[in-house]
Description:
Layout: H1 5-15, H2 17-23, E1 28-32, E2 38-42, H3 48-69, H4 77-80, E3 85-87, H5 107-112, E4 118-120, H6 122-137
Helix pairs in contact: 1-3, 3-6
Amino acid sequence: LLASSPSYHALADEAVQYPREICLEQSRRSSGINAEYGVRFHVPLEFRYEAALALQIANLVTRAFFSSQLGIHDLPNNVAFFSGVDIDRSLRKNVRDECVTPSNPHGLSVSYGIQQGEELDIFTLLERIDTLGANRDG
């Protein structure tokens, strides 16, 4: 049984490789280790929702693996899926942070035209993908 955070992230990273190879071949991965272990995928704007879904599915598969090793064969939604996946055009801790600083007193939206990002739970993400698919088809 693997139980450490690096083991979890290694499995999750492996689980997201197949979707990256199929539809996100232009993506780049970066990660950081801090108080909140973060994995970021830099993808073309048109693939942002597919990349977020790939992360959600990778979490589901990884959590299911660990749970099954413990004899737990049912996962509640709050364990199976991330509470939210951030989609943003800039690297900031929170998608709604304006990043006001002494050298940037007006924030990102006023100074640079960079709008707030999105934080999507699995249900909102699926709705966006469904809407996006309908718009692409019709």
